[in-house]
Amino acid sequence: MLDGYEAVPRISRSGTPDAPARDIDLVNTYNLRDLGGYATGSGLRVRWRRLFRGAGLQRLSGGDLQIVRDLGLRTVIDLRTEGELDLTGPCPTSDLGAAFHHLPILRRVWERPAGEDLAEPGAYLAARYREMLDEGAEMIAEALHILARPDAYPAVFYCAAGKDRTGVLAALVLDAVGVVEDDIVFDYHLSGKQVQRMIERARARAQERSTSFMAMVNQPPEIAGAPPQAMRSLLAWIREHHGSTGAYLREIGVGPEVVRRLADNLLERSR
């Protein structure tokens, strides 16, 4: 188990041919990163520059747009709600040359019920993520079917902050293809600092205050982070109640052949 996440040398900021920089450094969009390099229990790893996760890609423009265009994306999956899409628009996929898929895995952005106890933010978030597995089952299944297509890559999926909806889908994908739990939890935890950067920027820029992004900004600080226990708890719950992520996916219409194709698309032998 990993205790000191900040000390684990798993992010290459400068990048090497074998391990490119995980973070895609942009000016007006945060939390876009590569899911490559993570290890499976069978000695394989996720290929670099194949699958990305992100936040707020509808804001891509200028130099940011060119950086993302250079990734060669062929598929963009937007996990935001209908309301978020209507308010701020889609990712500029026509400029990227990518296919756009809107797969909202929540009907509406979370609102914390008055008086709800947030003494254990990991438990609170894990409970919301479990609800997402049910509410978003159809869209999760569609996302997995899309990512099982060899011609879908490189691909990216994103939501408003790139932490919760994107974090759940990333965990399901990585767990389905056999990535070890520590790497799944580590990747989820990476979003914490990026979300804090987004909150600070939004508070400093008045024009952001009229957007749905402020719903995330106004979250209690206890749940704005990405505590490792939230993801560990979700993965444990999936095992306890479904047997495995693969079994959960079968229940929602994603069979073993789809998972096999997903793994074929994403995995390679470690070098």
Which key phrases capture this entry?
271 residues, alpha/beta, Protein-Tyrosine Phosphatase, Chain A, five-stranded mixed sheet, two-stranded antiparallel ribbon, 13 helices, disordered N terminus
Describe the fold and architecture.
Mean pLDDT is 86; it is low at 1-14. The protein has a five-stranded mixed beta sheet with strand order 1-3-6-4-5, with helices on one face. Strands 2-7 form a two-stranded antiparallel sheet. The chain is globular. It contains 13 helices and seven strands. The protein has helices spanning 62-69, 82-88, 93-96, 121-135, 137-147, 165-176, 181-189, 191-204, 213-217, 221-224, 228-242, 245-251, 256-266, and strands spanning 33-34, 44-46, 51-55, 75-78, 99-102, 155-159, 267-269. The protein has a single domain, classed as Protein-Tyrosine Phosphatase, Chain A. The longest helix has 15 residues, at 121-135. Helix 4 crosses helix 11 (228-242). The chain is an alpha/beta fold.
Give a quick rundown of the structure:
It is built from 13 helices and 7 strands. The chain has one domain (20-109, 117-269): Alpha-Beta Complex (Protein-Tyrosine Phosphatase, Chain A). α4 crosses α11 (228-242), α6 runs antiparallel to α7 and α7 packs across α11.
The global form is globular
Strand order of the largest sheet: 1-3-6-4-5
CATH class: Alpha Beta
Rg value: 17 Å
Total E-strand runs: 7
The level of helicity is 40-55%
Mean pLDDT: 86
- N-to-C span: 24 Å
